[in-house]
Prior knowledge:
- Helices cover 85% and strands 0% of the residues.
- The protein has 273 residues and is mainly alpha-helical.
- The protein folds into 2 domains: 1-49; 53-272, MetI-like fold (Orthogonal Bundle), CATH 1.10.3720.10.
- It is found in: Cell membrane.
- It comes from Ferrovibrio xuzhouensis.
- The chain crosses the membrane at residues 27-49, 78-102, 114-136, 142-165, 186-216, 236-259.
Amino acid sequence: MQPDPAVATTLAPMRRRPSLLRRTQEIWLPVVVIAVLVMLWEIACRVFAVPGYLLPSPSAIWAETWQMRKQVLVHGEATLITVLAGFLVSVAISLPLAVALTASRTIANAIYPVLILTQSIPKVALAPILVVLLGANELPRIVITFLIAFFPLVLSCAAGLLAVPPELMELGRACKASRWQELTRIRLPFAMPFVFSGLKAAIALAVVGAVVAEFVNADRGLGYMIISATAFFKVPLAWGALILLSIMGIVLFQVVVVIERILVPWSNGNEKA
Length: 273
């Protein structure tokens, strides 16, 4: 029995409505939750008369940060440059390194211990040594950011390249595909969701790495601003810099998510969206 075309036309928007509501919920629900938390924070600070040097209210944080907005923008720009530079270096090195690790077991056995060694060293302890080695400039901060961001990206890329079904590889060999064609037409397209998972982790860790580097060696940046503000008991300003760092991490993460939805529409997460 065929459905009435008029009824089908009427029900079609109703079937699409849950998907539209779900997409809208991804935007307004986090905003509402954050707004409620900020209101509770403000009320608690006023009701319990919490001293500003311990926990400033959101209104005090906003007032202090807005008053220093020019300096905040300068320091924020410096941190953003460090984050992006370290992230781009990690991408440029991690992808070829992951291909090399998955192409040869000998290379993997030789390089994996070195990778683990670089991650076992505390970056806060390594930063002063890099300052002595590379000089008191931007380079040590970029290196620290790179060292913190690149490891999860290498692991995700390697996992994606190794997760290709054997049937696809056998089909490629049956079609007489070269190793380069196997990499570019089979392995990399299949591994792209894994790659973007690593990119999302790397961009978040790049913000952490930049702040760690600025704590040790910097004359500008939001991390340096937090250190100098707390040294002079300007706690609201330090909180403002901390919130800006969080916003920066969220925005950069969402930029990677948008790029993933454009370039990798076949990803499972994108299909659900």
